[in-house]
Structure formats: structure tokens, C-alpha cells
Design a protein that fits this description.
- By secondary structure, the chain is mainly beta.
- β7 and β8 form a beta hairpin.
- The radius of gyration is 25 Å and the shape is flat.
- Helices cover 5% and strands 48% of the residues.
Length: 254
């Protein structure tokens, strides 16, 4: 069938997991992902051999799944003098009878005297966490996914932002979807560098250039700067300014 009305009554059962997988992938924009829900599959090592995976919702191949309560997974002990990376994945499987499942799986890595490498995964695996082992010591789990923002977060949101340096102020900070617009003023009576941390705004995904405009002449700004991923702003003042020069930046949120 070329065209199929999935959300319609045919008089007989007709909706398959393939139908829903295609619609989910189209709606979310990707087939393999973690959606924001519950604990976002938070991983905690409760002992050297037990990892607890928190509640969460995800998709593998467009097929949705969720973890309704903390799930315990066993991590095999490490080897003295060897390093190893284990991966925790959500694995989709389908039997010859057509029965489907998505379950958490620990993929054991190969021990190495040097740097450890991640074990291989299959096309039906959604990588969640890396568990690093150094000898018999187990390290902190490393997250291997980015959570997809829920639809409710795509609306416009305003933030109150403070600055660690009084010479730079923030007048407005607005986020819409994955973009953030922030603008403010700067007063610097001396030439030099200003290092400032902005608190309260969404983190930037990558370092972004800050655009400055002269309020009076709108030419050759005396100020240049960048906003870092930790909301650290580095500003170079090449000409003293004291008339509330305007600055702005539009960046991708982390």
C-alpha cells in the first residue's frame, strides 16, 4: 500500500510498529534519541558492580520505550593493571515470530593496558552511558546522548541574567527553540580586556561572536568579544567607551 491512513478505522487491525516508527521519526526528527522525561536515564554506580539506570523515555529506530522505575544492571569487575570501557545501550530486538522488545544491555569492552576503547554497538543499539574502569576501580558514568527538547520548550522564554562585572550589563535574554538572543550595554573607561561570567542564561553550544555597535557613529566598533560555552564573555576594548555601547549575540543553546 502506497498511501495509508494510519489514524483511521479500516474495520480490521492494521496499525503496525513500522507505521508508528515512521510517524514518530517524522515528528521527533530522528529515529534514535532520548526524550526529556523523568530522570533522563540517569546512571549512578551504587557499587563497583551495580549501575542503576533511572526513569526515562527514548526511541530506537523510531520505536518508543520508557523505563518506569530504577533498573539495576551488572558491571563485571575490572582487571588489575587494565583499562576497560563498557557501554550501556537500549537494544531493539525482533524475534522470528515478530515479537519486539527494547531492553537495557551492558556491552563489555576489551581490557587494555593502554587507553581503553569503546566496544562496538549494533544498528539496533541506542548508546546511553559509558562506564570507564581503571583496574578494579569504576569511574563516573559518561553520558553518550543529548536529550531532545520537548515541544513545550520551543515557545519563547525570557531569562533574568546577571553579570559578574558591572561594566557589562544584560538588558534582555530570550530563547525560542534552540536559539538564544541576548543584548545589553557596556561602559569601559579604560582600554583593555574584560573577563565576565553571565549567570542565568542558557549555556551556549559553541563559542559565539558578540556583536557590538556604536550608539553614536555606528562605525568601526571599539569593542569586540566572544561568548563561551560556560557563559564566559571575553571582551577587548580598544577605545575607551562610556556611553552605554550596545552589544548583542545570537547563539545555539547547548
Amino acid at each position: 500500500m502506497a498511501f495509508e491512513a494510519v489514524d483511521a478505522c479500516f474495520g480490521t487491525p492494521h496499525i503496525s510498529s513500522d507505521d508508528l516508527a515512521a510517524l514518530n521519526t517524522a515528528a521527533i526528527g530522528k529515529a534514535d534519541c532520548v526524550l526529556h522525561y523523568g530522570d533522563d536515564f540517569k546512571a549512578v554506580m551504587s557499587s563497583s558492580n551495580e549501575c542503576l539506570i533511572g526513569t526515562g523515555v527514548g526511541m530506537v529506530g523510531g520505536r518508543r520505550f520508557w523505563n518506569q522505575a530504577a533498573t539495576s544492571l551488572t558491571i563485571q569487575s575490572g582487571t588489575q593493571g587494565q583499562k576497560r570501557n563498557d557501554l550501556i545501550v537500549a537494544r531493539y530486538a525482533k524475534t522470528s515470530a515478530g515479537i519486539e522488545s527494547i531492553t537495557p544491555v551492558v556491552i563489555k569492552g576489551a581490557p587494555s593496558a593502554d587507553a581503553a576503547a569503546d566496544p562496538e554497538v549494533t544498528a539496533n543499539d541506542l548508546k546511553l552511558w559509558r562506564i570507564p574502569l581503571d583496574g578494579i576501580a569504576v569511574g563516573t558514568p559518561v553520558k553518550l546522548f543529548e536529550t531532545v527538547a520537548p515541544l513545550a520548550s520551543l515557545g519563547q522564554t525570557s531569562y533574568e541574567v546577571s553579570s559578574s562585572d558591572g561594566r557589562i550589563s544584560v538588558d534582555a535574554c530570550t530563547a525560542c527553540g534552540g536559539l538564544v538572543f541576548m543584548a545589553g550595554r557596556i561602559n569601559a573607561t579604560e582600554v583593555g580586556w574584560i573577563y565576565v561570567t553571565l549567570t542565568g542564561c542558557p549555556n551556549a553550544k559553541v563559542r559565539s561572536g558578540v556583536v557590538f555597535g556604536r550608539n553614536s557613529t555606528w562605525n568601526a566598533p571599539a569593542i569586540t568579544g566572544t561568548l563561551g560555552k560556560d557563559n564566559d564573555m571575553i571582551v577587548q576594548v580598544t577605545e575607551a567607551v562610556g556611553n552605554s555601547e550596545a552589544w548583542s549575540v545570537t547563539y545555539l543553546r547547548a
